[in-house]
Amino acid sequence: MIMRKEEIRRHTVAVLVDNEAGVLARVIGLFSGRGYNIESLTVAEVDPGERLSRITIVTSGTPMVIEQIKAQLGRLVPVHKVRDLTVDGPSVSREMALVKVAGGGEKRVESLRIADIFRARVVDSTNESFVFEIVGATEKLDAFIKLMQPLGLIDVSRTGVVAISRGAEGI
Amino acid sequence: MAQEKLSGSEIILKALVDQGVDVIFGYPGGAVLPLYDEIFKQNRIRHILVRHEQAALHAAEGYARSTGKVGAVLVTSGPGATNAVTGLTDALMDSIPLVCFTGQVPTHLIGNDAFQEADTTGITRPCTKHNYLVKDVADLARVVHEAFYVARSGRPGPVVIDLPKDVLINEAAYISPAKIKHKSYKPQVKGDIKQIEKAVEMIAQAKKPIFYCGGGVINSGPAASTLLTQFAHTTGFPVTLTLMGLGAFPASDKQFLGMLGMHGTFEANWAMHDCDLMICVGARFDDRVTGRTNAFAPHSKKIHIDIDPSSVNKNVAVDLAIIGDVAHVLEDMIKVWKSKQYKPHDKALKEWWRQIELWRARDCLRYDRTSKLIKPQYAIERLYEQTKNRDTYITTEVGQHQMWAAQLYKFEKPNRWMTSGGLGTMGYGLPAAMGVQLAHPDSLVVDISGESSVQMNIQEMATICQYRLPVKVFILNNSYMGMVRQWQELLYEKRYAESYMGAHPDFVKLADAYGAKGLRCDAVADVDAAIREMIETDGPVILDMRVDPEENCFPMIPSGAAHNDMLLGSTDEGQKPISEEGMVLV
């Protein structure tokens, strides 16, 4: 039985699919065709032997909509497994961002100081710029990027969320 | 020992034979010429040359629906594939198993905007159950076998295989279907026994129950209809069917309340509204069935049996869901009912039936039998009377005639009724009738149609005549797009914007032009004789039945209204104006 409460909640869904041409288009087409949200989406091959890819989708909706999303994903032919990491048990999720900041003087020093607090690493540096690598929860990345804004933020590239369940069980 | 190598075209034909295909509907073109050459060289698979690719899809749908087998289609690249899109969408919406082969430009030209190139897998991704682009002939045999498996398994649907021309020519070893096992697609067939036990307990306790059954019963095979009838008789519960489900339960049975939904019967819709337990079997709570969902069967518990988990809780939240094939689940339900020695709630059911009989007494399908004009309902009643004792299959187009046929033609068996339900495709019926006739050469096949719909694929008269298919085209000619006109009358103050066609062909001459027989009837007294002549004519016939141009199809639940807000006839009009929300709905 699903809950009939109508509140909208964010869910992280992991989908194991055959790594074949068009599979990502099927998933994205399903979301756009049926009017579901995608807040972030990541995909990469995770089992080269079996040619399986794992897609992590962050979406939001009422419980009825989330059930529908999972059922619709499940009926795509190349989909092996669908897991809702938000409700199926505890999970960890991470996102990475590369953040480019340019400028000199006090702002340059300040950006380094904040990067240190957030445990961001410098992966590229010139006399007038840094590229920081930061890993963590989405909210941590949001906070870091916000702080960089007045310090000469030039460019942001984010991976989107990847997530996995806690404990010994696989997907 | 190395296995003998075959060309891609030879592999496809061998695979089709192994999949039990005997007829393929198609239209040739440059990209599929190697495959056509192979078809020319063999005689195990019969190719039917249609006049438009859309018709090939509908013909295959008619073939599939009337036989329970997978329909096969072959079209060329580019326009061949894009013309197939309507038929593919139709088959997807109505869960009809098809495999459609599309030609494609050679692999080295894909993406170059080559002549007759289209991104077929891109275009058909949302209108197929699955699709494939075969880039290596070594994959071809596996893909064809997988496609047939996917098309017919679980909730059936159309599958496209896109074939670059070089793949049809290159050679590889053949793989037989027995060696193919799908990696990921394994639909659940048996229902969860705990859920089934709970459901049967709810059924035993019900006081005002109803079986609401749909196309899933038909797709599950004839055994499902037999089991449904058996369980309905054991429990004594009333049964209503969706448009797609007609024939799943005998229409002449006392327990049958008729079709439900927008143009369903008064008794079916009221029983749905007032029930305390709804047992939904292979139906999907479509908006044409539910009306306004927040007023849909407000006092009921709902059980939903469906093979597709995404059908559950999509439009209406249910209390108990059983995922599985209808026949398997019904079989288990009957077993549980017997082993636990349940008895239906006789006293409550007697009261429920008393109420239902009061609704039934409203005689909601009545019409003016004194009219000097031919009433379309009368024409269908007479058609039914003259064909009921024959081996008859009915197809329809889309519109008023379709709803009258659904209301008034009584189907006793499954697979006898072919109509475009989900997509509502005008032009479906004529090519579908062609497909049905090919599968059942000695049966009577009638396309109940309207003069507007039939013209959307009228070119198929040439196919029908070429293959000497004795299809009967029964046109209820009211000179309007009748359902559009009806909505304009009821909702747009009779502003008949573009629903009247100022010119129609002379259907008698048109039949003659194609080489079929044409008949016309415009007097009530001649209806029986005209129908008799149509049936008794050896060969294809178009019967142009001139019916009352302004007759409306009732009962009708206006868009956005609840089941108990239905209009019964013209005297009801205007009492309950359509809400603004309702106007937005289709």
Please characterize this protein's 3D structure.
The complex is a heterodimer of chains A (171) and B (586). Chain A is α+β, with helices and mostly antiparallel strands and 171 residues long. The radius of gyration of chain A is 19 Å and the shape is elongated. Chain A has 2 domains: 5-84, 2-Layer Sandwich (Alpha-Beta Plaits), CATH 3.30.70.260; 92-163, 2-Layer Sandwich (Alpha-Beta Plaits). Chain A has helices at 23-33, 63-74, 105-117, 138-148, and strands at residues 9-18, 40-47, 52-61, 79-84, 91-102, 121-125, 129-136, 153-158, 162-165. Chain A has 4 helices and 9 strands. The two termini of chain A are 23 Å apart. In chain A, strands 5, 6, 7, 8 and 9 form a 5-stranded antiparallel sheet that branches. Chain A has a 4-stranded antiparallel sheet with strand order 2-3-1-4. With 586 residues, chain B is α/β, with parallel strands linked by helices. Helix content of chain B is 37%, strand content 16%. Chain B is built from 23 helices and 20 strands. A 6-stranded parallel sheet of chain B has the order 3-2-4-5-7-6, with helices on both faces. A 6-stranded parallel sheet of chain B has the order 11-10-9-12-13-14, sandwiched between helices. In chain B, helix 1 runs parallel beside helix 7 and helix 3 packs across helix 18 (429-439). The longest helix of chain B has 15 residues, at 53-67.
SSE blueprint:
The complex is a heterodimer of chains A (171) and B (586).
Chain A: E1 9-18, H1 23-33, E2 40-47, E3 52-61, H2 63-74, E4 79-84, E5 91-102, H3 105-117, E6 121-125, E7 129-136, H4 138-148, E8 153-158, E9 162-165
Antiparallel strand pairs in A: 1-3, 1-4, 2-3, 5-7, 5-8, 5-9, 6-7
Chain B: E1 5-7, H1 8-18, E2 23-26, H2 33-40, E3 46-49, H3 53-67, E4 71-75, H4 79-83, H5 85-93, E5 98-104, H6 120-124, E6 130-133, H7 140-152, E7 158-164, H8 165-169, E8 171-173, H9 193-205, E9 209-213, H10 215-219, H11 222-235, E10 239-241, E11 256-259, H12 266-274, E12 277-281, H13 287-290, E13 301-306, E14 320-323, H14 326-339, H15 346-360, H16 376-387, E15 392-396, H17 400-408, E16 417-418, H18 429-439, E17 444-450, H19 460-466, E18 472-477, H20 482-491, H21 507-514, E19 517-521, H22 527-536, E20 541-546, H23 580-584
Parallel strand pairs in B: 2-3, 2-4, 4-5, 5-7, 6-7, 9-10, 9-12, 10-11, 12-13, 13-14, 15-16, 15-17, 17-18, 18-20, 19-20
Antiparallel strand pairs in B: 1-8
